[in-house]
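Could you please review the protein record set out just below?
***
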Amino acid sequence: SMPAAPLMLGVIGIANATIDIAGYSLLQRSLPTTHRASGLAMFEGIAEAGIGAGGLVAAPVLALLGISGAFVAFGGALVIAGLLLVIPLRSLRAGLAGRTVIVDRLQAVALLAPLPLAAIEALAADAVPVRLSAGDALMREGERGDRYLVITSGSADISIGGAQVRTVGPGDGVGEIALLRDVPRTATVIARGPVEALAIEGAAFLAAVTGHPGSLGVATRVVDGHLGDALPVVAAD
């Protein structure tokens, strides 16, 4: 009826907003970077296919059940579909909750803090947890640099030429000099005890940091500061 039309249009508007915001946001946050484009394309394809299928079955259902019966049938189908999706969506929600923890930890790193949320979430999606024991090396001086490490628990000693220069802990990142300057590792990092860290692949780190002026500026200052710490050690040698 005419009085119900504005209400129905309002419901459609809310539904479209929910799909656009929740659907696309959840997908881009939950999919790895390498699968994000194909995942979003598949989502869009399924949505368009649903519209097409609805157009095909609407007329026969209306003819068979009438307007009221059609509303009940389609509404019931949506309720059943929602119930069937409860378990997968809960699993997705749990995964995103874990991703949020990783995002928070990456945002706490001074070098990464200036990055926009989308860039941080992309790094979080590809970050690999690393666990080390006391005495294990996170990296060694002279090695090829292929990843950036963010320490989430524990602490590690950084040494250059065998001389300790500083200690790092939760919220600190290591390995940026070799990546940003394209040189071998300039220091050795040894775990003092059990250490947990997040490893970010070098190409992803560089793409994120060098693609954002604020982060690149911070990274340049961090690298210059760490290289400055190394100068007294080199001079002493």
Notes: Confidence is low (pLDDT under 50) at residues 231-237. Helices lie at 5-30, 33-84, 86-107, 117-126, 176-181, 202-210, 213-236. DSSP finds seven helices and eight strands in the chain. The two ends are 88 Å apart (CA to CA).
